[in-house]
Please model this.
Amino acid sequence: MIRKLFPALLLVGSFSYAQIGINSENPNATLDVIGNPGDPFKFDGIIAPRITGDQLRAKNYTASQNGAIVFVTQEDTAPAGQTIDVTASGYYYFDGNSGKWIKLISAAASQKIRTLSTGTVADDDYTVLISGDVTLPSATSSNRGKVYQLINDTAGNVTVNGLFRINGGNFSNYGLNNSNLGRGIVVQSTGSAWVITSRY
Model:
């Protein structure tokens, strides 16, 4: 009996539909998910596997997992190897060519340009035209990797206050003037200080 059923099952399997529909009887792709937008008690969306950066570091992905997507709930506390760039929570995909997890982020070009005459640079700022003395937010693990472009928008001098790191040492402020290599800087957070990655 088993000998007769096995070939029949193989034949049926070869005619199986290779597309999956969730809330859809006629899927239009490999995976077709139809939500319930009219029902406020059913939450639409797809949730990727949730994992901490430390848990992700313990795994060894290969080219076979190229394109895998996860949601990191907490940054890696000791980024290294495949998770060297897992420095904040968010969606990441595995790049099988580089062997690293890459964060899915929006393009920096879509960021607004803000003018600031005093106060603290905001978390969601990117390019800031400075017309007075300002302060960078504290560099912490939550903004590790964050980049700001700060430009002097005056004919005089302005000061950017914050904890900067250069040549193995720290200093507490940086002056911008109106000359070449002094008008603007690009800084990036290490999680404990701001490193000047470029000046112009």
Observations:
- The first helix runs from residue 2 to 14.
- The chain has two domains: 50-103, 108-199.
- Residues 55 and 76 are 8 Å apart (CA to CA).
